[in-house]
């Protein structure tokens, strides 16, 4: 796929995730030698991808395989969907492969985290399996949409309890992805709650229970900062404890 010189600045995320073809990667390597902004951008995306992969690993329960194998015979396999053949240009094929490359590159690092880690290893049957797969795909699509956005920006921080955090935002997509590593268990009856700061007011933006990745809820497009607090189970409408983290978002 040919790109104009101005397009090179939009390829940092695809480069970091290995989603460029050899010719494009060679061209972007050459671009990096003369563009400090893209070097920094690619470095931040690579660090984020590595942290995602390290944060989500969790071994399955010992009995999970036996339960899944026992349930397989009761799950009906759906017939393949065969769309009508239509002429497709080489450019469209390459574009389609590019769009699929980002979710596939992210799948190994975030699929276990988007539902809180252990949920993807629990034995499910029939409709439960299908619904869980749909939810994983929905979350994965949301994560990859933000990370692959041309205007994606990354910030890193450290919470007061020592957790390492990364936030990737896209104002164009009005989305933000939060990743935590080394995040201690919240304790019985407690939960970690995320916040978005709008004009000095903190608005609820979701929860994270431990190491992993979540898509922030709310409207991060015009938020000034992301916050993290320890709250009672179920969350709070306003922070009830000192923030463990308040991380300014890039303008």
Task: Record the SSE blueprint.
Blueprint: H1 12-16, H2 22-32, H3 36-56, H4 64-72, H5 90-110, H6 126-147, E1 153-158, E2 164-170, E3 175-181, E4 190-198, E5 201-208, E6 212-215, E7 225-232, E8 245-248
Antiparallel strand pairs: 1-2, 2-3, 3-6, 4-5, 4-7, 7-8
Task: Provide the residue-averaged pLDDT.
Answer: 74
SSE sequence, one letter per element:
HHHHHHEEEEEEEE
Give a count of the beta strands, DSSP E runs of length 2 or more.
8
Give the terminus-to-terminus CA distance. 31 Å
Estimate the global geometry from the Cα principal axes.
globular
Count of folded domains: 2
| Secondary-structure content class | alpha+beta
Strand line-up in the sheet with most strands: 1-2-3-6
**What is the helix tally?**
6
Strand content: 15-25%
Largest sheet: 4 strands, antiparallel
User: Which blocks of ≥5 consecutive residues have pLDDT under 50?
Assistant: 1-6, 85-90, 93-109, 111-124
Radius of gyration: 20 Å
Query: What share of residues is helical?
Result: 25-40%
Characterization of the model:
- This protein has 251 residues and is of the alpha+beta class.
- The chain has two domains: 10-72 and 88-146, no CATH class; 153-248, no CATH class.
- The chain has six helices and eight strands; from the N terminus they run ααααααββββββββ.
- The chain has helices at 12-16, 22-32, 36-56, 64-72, 90-110, 126-147; strands spanning 153-158, 164-170, 175-181, 190-198, 201-208, 212-215, 225-232, 245-248.
- The strands form two sheets. The protein has a four-stranded antiparallel sheet, covered by helices on one side. It has a four-stranded antiparallel sheet with strand order 5-4-7-8, with no helix packed on it.
- α3 (36-56) crosses α5.
- The two termini are 31 Å apart.
- Residues 1-6, 85-90, 93-109 and 111-124 have low confidence and may be disordered.
